Task: inverse folding
């Protein structure tokens, strides 16, 4: 395994734990998400980011491992916990940070915010805010792929609470019934806000719900990026080649509170549990693996970290420089983004 | 000009658009093998095949969302609800997904989709199957809402709805499917957002839409015998509403009755009256009167149902009242 292997070749080989170049790419992706969101927390405290803001910290191996198995023309959709998946999919830190800051150059032009990142360039079909509501959309994209006779794959992320919604059942039933090229990925971080999975679902191995929809199903460790690649790789292959959907439960853990306005631990999970879980930080696991395999020196790591911090700082500076929406008085609206922006994109003014 | 049913006008509209554009497909319960719960899609499965005429399980929330997802990536779904009563289960997809996607994505993802099916009451179907939803839907920025009352309008508007790049809620009527009217063989489109003056008169305006257009026309016929001439404004599109057509009519007649199938509170008529008071305040010779369903769930018993529904006698009485004839 050498660094000269092409990305495409690597993608067909899900668990090449010895591939230094690939591992570095994944470390970079995961660390970018981490450094980016650490600054999000800071920006939130400063009031530069408002509203609901759900951090992905602790779950980065799921996004990075999954995206590393996809083609650029595949589709991705997820929930409001979307910063990590968006960056891992290749959206620019600048466009994401500018969106979080509510600026004109944000990926959704300041209309979506943290929960609604969209990017047509990377087929990132959005962060969605109604728990379960985006799962039928994923089935619809799978339907469209089949309708057109394409070989793309639709990947749909969701939290584990989604499995209790009606939308999940309706969507998975049709995907199984019609054999659509979808990979449904449950990011089981054990809690939906403050409700533990065991207090919400009648079964606890939730990937087994796939049985009801005649769907191949699997479970894997979401802190181990190689395990994610292995499981997602199989599911993507099955979707692409055989048009068979998969339900995948990836077990992970969120290191932060449910959103920026929630406590990190408290009535619903003890601090000791959190500390125990943080010993399996996905970034530390990959880094340690690489260091032990002689793929990463301390110096390289430090350089990478500095580079990523600079990229995040650049995204912050970019966001801050991007025109702001009018805040107080419409009459004094900034000339760059006049109040007409408010009414833009309510309707498309085209017909076909 | 050929005379065809409202049902066949709708079928022809969808068929022509499916022939014209292979991104258009029809999805819903019983649309394919059964040939349509109300037979709008008769012969479609045979003509277009099962990929484009898709029977779904009974899963309104699910298949509405499937339509939105397919529209996000370039298809142009026509989603049939067996009736709009059942679409309530799908409203999250209509409101939170379809209507907002373009806005939330900063203009990146348009949703060219039509949600269609019968709306409002038929006969003695009682509370859960007899509801008119247009005011709910028209409340939502991002949606367009259409309610045609004649076969001609049904065809021309549905074709435009399918070609529109926005989510359109298309409200038909079970009681309208068998009604007949002239529909030309040649292709035509009716622009969304344009009302139609169905009848001209100088004494009073009736502003209405959908199924109630027929009632308004009958009222106009009857009143004409007494020498009262009615301007019948058929809104056709509830959102965006043709405010100019309303104003033009009321400024001419100085009196208005607003007739709708649904309930009074926050109904479509409330919006129409608001436009009238804003644009025509100085032109009014009498307060505007609204005719609508009684403020109750729809009862089953024939007599009670009649009492609850807006109908011809109620429409005529309202006109007489705004004309100070009683
Ligand atoms: C239909 C609906 N109900 C409630 C909420 C409020 N809410 C937002 S996130 C959340 C918890 C979801 O947990 P999970 O699916 O496990 O995802 P996670 O936040 O853990 O990523 C709740 C209850 C919502 N957004 N939508
Ligand atoms: Mg969760």
Result:
């Amino acid at each position: 395994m050498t660094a000269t292997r092409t990305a495409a070749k690597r993608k067909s080989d899900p668990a090449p734990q010895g591939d230094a170049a690939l591992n570095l790419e994944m470390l970079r992706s995961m660390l970018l998400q981490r450094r980016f969101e650490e600054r999000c927390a800071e920006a939130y405290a400063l009031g530069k980011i408002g509203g609901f803001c759900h951090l992905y910290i602790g779950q980065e191996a799921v996004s990075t491992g999954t995206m590393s198995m996809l083609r650029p023309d595949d589709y991705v959709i997820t929930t409001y916990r979307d910063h990590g998946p968006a960056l891992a999919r290749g959206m620019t830190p600048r466009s994401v940070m500018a969106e979080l800051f509510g600026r004109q150059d944000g990926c959704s032009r300041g209309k979506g915010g943290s929960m609604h990142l969209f990017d047509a360039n990377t087929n990132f079909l959005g962060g969605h805010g109604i728990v379960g509501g985006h799962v039928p959309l994923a089935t619809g994209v799978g339907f469209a792929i089949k309708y057109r006779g394409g070989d793309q794959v639709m990947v749909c992320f969701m939290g584990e609470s989604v499995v209790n919604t009606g939308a999940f059942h309706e969507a998975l039933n049709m995907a199984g019934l019609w054999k659509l090229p979808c990979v449904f990925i449950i990011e089981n971080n054990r809690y939906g806000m403050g409700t533990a999975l065991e207090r919400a679902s009648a079964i606890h191995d939730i990937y087994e719900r796939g049985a009801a929809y005649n769907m191949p199903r699997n479970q894997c460790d979401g802190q181990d990026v190689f395990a994610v690649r292995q499981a997602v790789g199989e599911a993507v292959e099955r979707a692409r080649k055989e048009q068979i959907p998969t339900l995948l439960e990836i077990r992970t853990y969120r290191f932060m509170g449910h959103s920026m306005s929630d406590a990190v631990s408290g009535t619903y999970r003890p601090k000791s549990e959190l500390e125990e879980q943080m010993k399996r930080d996905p970034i530390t696991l990959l880094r340690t693996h690489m260091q032990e395999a002689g793929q990463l020196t301390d110096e390289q790591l430090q350089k990478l970290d500095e580079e990523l911090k600079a990229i995040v700082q650049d995204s912050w500076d970019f966001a801050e420089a991007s025109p702001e929406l009018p805040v107080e008085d419409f009459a004094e609206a900034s000339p760059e983004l006049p109040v007409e922006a408010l009414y833009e994109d309510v309707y498309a003014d085209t017909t076909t | 000009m050929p005379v065809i049913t409202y049902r066949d006008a709708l079928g022809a509209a969808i068929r022509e658009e499916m022939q014209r554009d292979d991104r258009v497909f029809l999805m819903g319960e019983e649309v394919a093998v059964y040939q349509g719960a109300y037979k709008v899609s008769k012969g479609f499965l045979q003509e277009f095949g099962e990929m484009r005429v898709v029977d779904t399980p009974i899963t309104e929330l699910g298949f509405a969302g499937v339509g939105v997802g397919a529209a996000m990536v370039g298809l142009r779904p026509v989603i049939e609800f067996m009736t709009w009563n059942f679409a309530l289960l799908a409203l999250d997809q209509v409101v939170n997904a379809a209507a907002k996607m373009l806005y939330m994505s900063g203009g990146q993802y348009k949703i060219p989709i039509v949600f269609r099916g019968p709306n409002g009451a038929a006969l003695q179907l009682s509370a859960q199957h007899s509801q008119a939803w247009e005011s709910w839907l028209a409340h939502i920025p991002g949606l367009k809402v259409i309610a045609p009352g004649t076969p001609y309008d049904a065809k021309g508007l549905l074709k435009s709805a399918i070609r529109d790049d926005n989510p359109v809620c298309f409200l038909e009527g079970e009681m309208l499917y068998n009604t007949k009217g002239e529909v030309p063989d040649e292709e035509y489109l009716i622009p969304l957002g344009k009302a139609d003056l169905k009848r001209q008169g100088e004494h009073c305006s009736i502003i209405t839409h959908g199924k109630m257009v027929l009632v308004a026309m009958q009222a106009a016929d009857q009143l004409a015998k007494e020498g009262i001439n009615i301007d019948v404004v058929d809104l056709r599109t509830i959102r965006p509403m043709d405010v100019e057509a309303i104003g033009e009519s009321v400024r001419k007649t100085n009196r208005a009755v607003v007739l709708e199938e649904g309930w009074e509170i926050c109904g479509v008529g409330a919006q129409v009256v608001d436009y009238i008071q804003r644009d025509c305040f100085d032109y009014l010779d009498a307060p505007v009167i609204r005719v609508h369903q009684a403020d109750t769930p729809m009862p089953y018993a024939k007599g009670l149902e009649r009492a609850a529904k807006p109908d011809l006698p109620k429409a005529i009485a309202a006109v007489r009242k705004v004309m100070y004839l009683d």
About this structure: The mean pLDDT of chain A is 93. Residues 178 and 200 of chain A are 29 Å apart (CA to CA). Chain A touches chain B through 48 residues (CB under 8 Å). The domain at 10-343 of chain A is CATH 3.40.50.970 (Rossmann fold).
